[in-house]
Structures are given as structure tokens and as C-alpha cells.
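A common beginner's mistake is to predict each chain separately and then try to dock the pieces by hand. The better habit, illustrated here, is to supply every component at once so that their relative placement is modeled jointly.
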Amino acid sequence: MAEPIKVVVTGAAGQIAYSLLYQIASGAVFGPEQPVFLHLLDIAPMMGVLEGVVMELADCALPLLAGVLPTANPEEAFKDVAAAFLVGAMPRKEGMERKDLLSANVRIFKEQGQALDKVARKDVKILVVGNPANTNALICSKYAPSIPKENFTAMTRLDQNRAQAQLAAKLGVKVQDVKNVIIWGNHSSTQFPDASNAVVTVNGAQKPVPAALNDEEFLKSTFVTTVQKRGAAVIAARKMSSALSAAKAASDHMRDWFLGTGDRWVSMGVVSDGSYGTPRDVVFSFPVTVSNGKWKIVEGLTISDFARKMIDATGKELDEEKNDALEVCK
Ligand code: NAX
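With all components supplied together, the output reads:
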């Protein structure tokens, strides 16, 4: 069996981590032959709760779990890690404006970038889940200049999974029979869920989703808004934000990054190179494929006038978030 790799999860005492830790430690992310040593970071007041999580991980009796280190010290948590799930962030409190939340969280991700820069492996793969995920990932990367910027990504996989599930339900097929749905832009209500290049397998034959559905209005309106507002719908029903599905999406993202996608497209927030006329130097969600641990933006897609407007709007929001975040970091 391989040597254990060190994997950090921040916000380890929180609700997403509660589902995510089992998936990592059971082999669902790095494969059934790869032992993991888990580093669990949370803030000092949560160390008691975290101790309970550590007890439960032990009680799972998982063969791939080589060890667990709970800590409130970022430099201890990030030491020699090969993969980082940055889930922990400050939640929005009553009366807090979006800008207040942004400035609180940007500070956290600045500090964590500095700590990663100092002590993590230089090939560490970083997935930011904590919101505002795209801009947090950008700031983290800026404060970790010794780690390639390609190694910083933000999670839009939950949005992709939601979109795929919505289309499968509408088409009356299994979720795995729908592929190549794209999430463009920010993990926020301006994101653009795009089914124009998606394909569905029906009776063994592949068909473009727009042709199979034959309902352009649905794809431009109900589909887009349902995916954009799915997080809010879960909060309204559960009185808490998505956790099980968020953890599953984080596992999917990191597994595909480590183990590859083949020719399947997945959506990841990555530092933009300006592809498809998007703003450069923001963390923008694109369709990518992954091989040998490296992601590559899918090229050559046709962008309709409708898509252009949607992509521009989410890009504009990311540019504004970046400027606000850089102001906070000054
Ligand atoms: P919880 O509030 O249950 O847990 C967050 C944990 O982070 C807490 O234990 C808290 O003490 C810890 N924390 C706060 N500051 C920290 C710091 N500086 N270092 C380490 N830990 C710290 O939230 P949960 O439901 O787990 O959600 C976590 C984050 O994911 C939130 O920012 C949330 O908005 C975001 N989400 C992102 C999604 C995405 O698709 N990108 C979807 C789900 C989720 O809403």
C-alpha cells in the first residue's frame, strides 16, 4: 500500500466537514489504495467539538485512516499537506452586509494563503469551499506566491451536480446519463448554468440536451433560476445550508482533480486566463478536463448572445468582488 498523504480540512468542526471527513477517510476521494493522514483545522473555541469529531473518526474503524491531527494553528494544519479542503469561513450573521462578510472572510484566506505558502507541499491541490469561494481562492493564491496559481480552485461542483440532477429529472433519465453541463463564473446567484453543450444518452445513443428537451425557454429561464436559487431553497426547507451535497461535491471535485476525468467535462473555479472573453485574474468557473493532475479549460465552444450576456454579468461581479477584496487586504 502507498505511503499516507496528508490532507487538511478547515472548518473541521462544521457541518460540511462532518460529511466530508468520512468520504475522505473511507477512500472515496483519493482511491481505495491511498491511506490518508487527516489534519483538522478549526478555531480555538471549537476544539471541544472537534475532539468529538476525532472520537467519531476513530470509532469508524477505517483502514485507510493513518492518523488525525486536530489543531487551531494554521501552520501546523497545513504542514506538508498534498490536498487542502478550505471549508471553514465566517458565516453570515444577522444584519451583516455582503461586504462585511467578504471582508471578514478575505482576511481569513489571506492568513491561510500565507501559512500554505510557508509550510505546505508546493504541489498541494487546494479547493476553496468557504464563501465567497471564488474570491477567497484568488486571495489565498495571491498570498501564497510560491505555490503555482493553477493549484488554487473554487468549488462550483455542487452547482454542476444540481444542474445535472435537474436535467436528468426533466428528461426522465438517470443522472449519469447526462453529461457536460457547465457552470460559468461565480458561485453566487449570478452563476450561469449552461446546458447548451450538454448531452444525454437515451437507449444507448447520445443526443444534445437542447434537442432532446426541445424547450429553449425552460433552459434559459426555469433551469437557470432553479440552479441559481437551489442553495436558498435548501436553507428554506432545512433551516440550515446544504451540507451533505456540498461535501459530496467537494469529494467529486478533488477526486477528479487527483484521478482524472477522461473526456467528461467538469466545472471548476480556476484563475482565469481570459478564455471566452472573461476577465483575467479572477477565479472563474469554466468547463475543464483533467489528466495527470492538471486541469485544462475546454476550448472551442460557441458562445450564444444569451450566454455572452450571462458570462459577462457574472464576470463583472467577480471583478467587483476582487477589487473589494484587494481593498480589504491593503
Ligand atoms: P459551519 O458554520 O457549519 O462550519 C464552518 C466551520 O468553520 C465552523 O466550525 C467554524 O468554527 C469554522 N471556521 C471559522 N473560521 C475559521 C478559520 N479562520 N479557520 C478554520 N475554521 C474556521 O458551515 P458549513 O455549513 O460547514 O459551511 C462552510 C462554508 O461553506 C460556508 O462559508 C458556506 O457558505 C460554504 N458553502 C459553499 C458552497 C459551495 O458550493 N462553494 C456550498 C455549501 C456552503 O454554503
